[in-house]
């Protein structure tokens, strides 16, 4: 999920920030923006005060003019992430847990989430695995590029929690779950901040999700 802040930065995402859907014109590259699909909605004027828009924290920076609507505010996300951490802590109590954050999108959500995992598991390792299929577009290429540097041996016999920012078609997570199972993980579960169920092509079910989101291209704002 690409993100925006005061300026738009490629690949920046945030679990703590707000999640928004994007509207607007085709962008020349990801370096300056987000995606590419006009949703046909009125673009909020840059002068419109942020607190006049639904769910948006009045203290948030102004919303990017290409963002159509803020779906989840910073506060709502932070509260849900804390709740997820407690649910996960209870589930893995006394067990050896390896949290695997899926890069790049889930790096911030993963770090926010693991801070809230309580009660503590018997052991908790955090690792990251890079998986990418969208490139600079809004459609999956269908070919998931995996970072071959991940040490699969490290998950053998451990309980693996895959952490994603968003489940869309489900293809990325299906592939990663298969990989972890093949590596001898004792169990493989999924926690995703956002679940776009309407777009599912591969039957992936997350044990924990932050929010269901509509069939729009979603970005993080911070
Ligand atoms: O359910 P799916 O259709 O597979 O889509 C979900 C995946 O797509 C995004 O990653 P992306 O390929 O954009 O890579 P990135 O996180 O490195 O940008 C997102 O972070 C998920 O990993
Ligand atoms: O809606 C989305 N936003 C950002 N990244 C994504 N990857 C799959 N779907 C999405």
Automatic annotation (TrEMBL):
It catalyses: IMP + diphosphate = hypoxanthine + 5-phospho-alpha-D-ribose 1-diphosphate. It is found in: Cytoplasm. Residues 39-64 are annotated as: Disordered. GO terms for molecular function: hypoxanthine phosphoribosyltransferase activity; magnesium ion binding; nucleotide binding. Pathway: Purine metabolism; IMP biosynthesis via salvage pathway; IMP from hypoxanthine: step 1/1. Its EC number is 2.4.2.8. Its cofactor is Mg(2+). The keyword Magnesium applies. Residues 43-52 have a biased composition (Pro residues). One of its GO terms (biological process) is purine ribonucleoside salvage. Keywords: Cytoplasm, Glycosyltransferase, Magnesium, Metal-binding, Nucleotide-binding, Purine salvage, Transferase. InterPro entries: HGPRT, Hxn_phspho_trans, PRTase-like, PRTase_dom. Gene3D superfamilies: 3.40.50.2020. The keyword Nucleotide-binding applies. Residues 78-221 form the Phosphoribosyltransferase domain. Belongs to the purine/pyrimidine phosphoribosyltransferase family. This is Hypoxanthine phosphoribosyltransferase. It comes from Edaphochlamys debaryana.
């Amino acid at each position: 999920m690409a993100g925006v802040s005061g300026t738009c930065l490629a690949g920046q995402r945030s679990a703590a920030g707000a999640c928004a859907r994007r509207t607007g014109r085709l962008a020349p590259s990801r370096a300056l923006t987000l995606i590419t699909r006009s949703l046909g909605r009125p673009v909020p004027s840059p002068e419109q005060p942020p607190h006049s828009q639904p769910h948006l924290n009045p203290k948030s920076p102004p919303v990017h003019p290409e963002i159509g609507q803020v779906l989840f505010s910073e506060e709502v996300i932070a509260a849900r992430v804390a709740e997820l951490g407690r649910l996960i802590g209870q589930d893995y109590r006394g067990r050896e847990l390896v949290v695997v954050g899926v890069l790049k999108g889930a790096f911030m959500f993963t770090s926010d989430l693991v801070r809230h995992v309580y009660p503590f598991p018997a052991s908790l390792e955090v690792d990251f695995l890079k998986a990418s299929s969208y490139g600079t577009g809004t459609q999956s290429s269908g070919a998931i590029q995996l970072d071959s540097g991940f040490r699969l041996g490290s998950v053998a016999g451990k309980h693996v929690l895959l952490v994603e920012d968003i489940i869309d078609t489900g293809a990325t997570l299906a592939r990663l779950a298969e990989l972890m199972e093949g590596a001898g993980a004792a169990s493989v579960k999924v926690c995703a901040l956002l679940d776009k169920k309407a777009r599912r092509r591969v039957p992936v079910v997350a044990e924990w999700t932050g929010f269901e989101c509509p069939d729009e291209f979603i970005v993080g704002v911070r």
